[in-house]
Design a protein that fits this description.
Layout (H helix, E strand, L loop, with lengths): L2 H11 L3 H11 L8 E8 L7 H6 L3 E7 L4 E9 L6 H18 L12 E8 L33 E4 L13 H10 L3 H14 L6 H13 L4 H11 L4 H18 L5 H20 L4 H9 L2 H13 L3 H5 L4
Parallel strand pairs: 3-4, 4-5
Antiparallel strand pairs: 1-2, 2-3
């Protein structure tokens, strides 16, 4: 997969108002937007974008209506590498957007105040970001007088996707899930993230397909993880269904040589069985936990399948291999 294809599918995720809403309310809180109006996020019509703005900025511009009646225009810029001059660029985008709004008679010098323009930079690169989000930090300031605080007081909000502390990520938030997908290297965690994603995504609209496309490009369309994505997002997506499919995925990975030893597969199966039993029957006792730890991979595989239909914990372990 080319990095350009991955970047394109990444940006397409934010073509959804739902993703933009979770971004603004979960990770742009310092802007002080407050509650949004219902259905208050809509893309700026292409006819509003002047040639000058289009030549400088090719990402996304959204009109955001607030619950208190206010209005903000959000410019979303995607970066895969640091740009120390980003504050100057976003300042230029803001000025060009105000010019476009004026040319389209949305604002005028006689009608004040104008809606605010909020620039959000989404950075998904691996290197540490360089550069201040405040333009006045880049400009010489005098010790007294008008130039003491700088004449250009523009700032943008930087959302560094790889620098977010997972402990502080917003719950039930699609942008949080996107960050966690970027970091996961574990099959069991990947399946759990898919299940969370399935619960949060609307069953209609394009966002479900856009997430699947991004995951396919990230893990490879022919990988077992891509098959898991297809099964969870476009089939039942229920815990019972996942339990039935887990054994098949596990065996397929072994045939393809993707598993790194039986021990790793056994640990994953133990984790799956424990979580499934807890979900169906409540916390498991120490004796059951020890039995799971001592079981062979074949026994674990059998117990996972039995746990789907069993009425009690004891039925899961009856007639053990």
């Amino acid at each position: 997969m080319s990095s350009r294809a991955h970047d394109t599918s990444y940006k397409q995720l934010f073509n959804s108002p739902l993703m933009v809403q979770d971004l603004l309310q979960g990770y742009v809180t310092e802007a002080g937007l407050g509650p949004l109006a219902p259905d208050g996020i809509e893309p700026l019509p292409p006819s509003f974008v002047t040639p000058g703005l289009r030549a400088k900025h090719s990402d996304q511009i959204w009109r955001v209506r607030l619950a208190d009646g206010g209005e903000v225009y959000a410019i979303i810029e995607f970066q895969s590498r640091p740009d120390p001059a980003m504050a100057l660029r976003t300042c230029l985008y803001s000025a060009l957007l105000y010019e476009a709004l004026m040319q389209n008679h949305i604002i005028s010098p006689d009608r004040l105040p104008w809606p605010a323009v909020l620039c959000v930079v989404i950075y998904n690169g691996r290197r540490r970001w360089r550069g201040s989000p405040h333009l006045h930090d880049c400009i010489w300031q005098s010790k007294t007088g008008l130039l003491r605080r700088g004449l250009l007081r523009h700032s943008h909000v930087l959302v560094d996707m790889h620098a977010q502390d997972e402990q502080n990520m917003q719950a039930n938030n699609l942008v949080s899930l996107l960050m966690r997908f970027e970091r996961t290297r574990n099959q069991q965690e990947f399946v759990e993230l898919l299940s969370e994603l399935n619960d949060l995504l609307p069953h209609t609209g394009e966002l479900r397909g856009q997430f699947a496309r991004w995951i396919f490009e990230k893990v490879g369309p022919d990988s077992t993880w891509a098959e898991m994505t297809q099964d969870v997002l476009f089939n039942e997506g229920e815990v019972m269904y996942l339990a039935k499919r887990f054994a098949a995925w596990d065996r397929k990975m072994e045939r393809k040589g993707e598993r790194k030893g039986e021990l790793k597969g056994k640990l994953a199966m133990q984790n799956t069985l424990s979580k499934l039993l807890e979900k169906r029957f409540g916390p498991i006792d120490a004796q059951t936990g020890q039995r799971i730890q001592k079981a062979s991979l074949a026994q674990l595989d059998e117990w996972v399948l039995r746990s789907v239909d069993a009425r009690t914990v004891s039925e899961v372990f009856e007639q053990a291999l």
